[in-house]
Amino acid sequence: MFPLRVFLFGGLVSLCVCQYYDYDFGLPPEPVQSTPSCVQECECPFNFPTAMYCNGRNLKFIPIVPTGIKYLYLQDNLIEEIKPGVFDNVTDLRWLVLDNNIITSDKIQSGTIDKLGKLEKLMFSNNKLTKPPGPLSKSLDELKLIGNQLTSFPSGTLSGMENLTSVYLSKNQLTSESLAGAFKGLKSLMLLDVSENKLKKLPAGVPPSLLMLYADNNEIESISGGYVAKLPELQYLRVSHNKLVDSGIPAGVFNVSSLLELDLSFNKLQTIPEVNEALEHLYLQVNQISKFDLGSICKFSSPVNYSKLKTLRLDGNNLTHSSMPDDASNCLRQASEIIFD
Ligand SMILES: *[C@@H]1O[C@H](CO)[C@@H](O)[C@H](O)[C@H]1NC(C)=O
Ligand SMILES: *[C@@H]1O[C@H](CO)[C@@H](O)[C@H](O)[C@H]1NC(C)=O
Ligand SMILES: *[C@@H]1O[C@H](CO)[C@@H](O)[C@H](O)[C@H]1NC(C)=O
Ligand SMILES: *[C@@H]1O[C@H](CO)[C@@H](O)[C@H](O)[C@H]1NC(C)=O
Ligand SMILES: *[C@@H]1O[C@H](CO)[C@@H](O)[C@H](O)[C@H]1NC(C)=O
Question: Which of 217, 135, 223 is closest to 170 using CA atoms?
Answer without folding.
Answer: 217
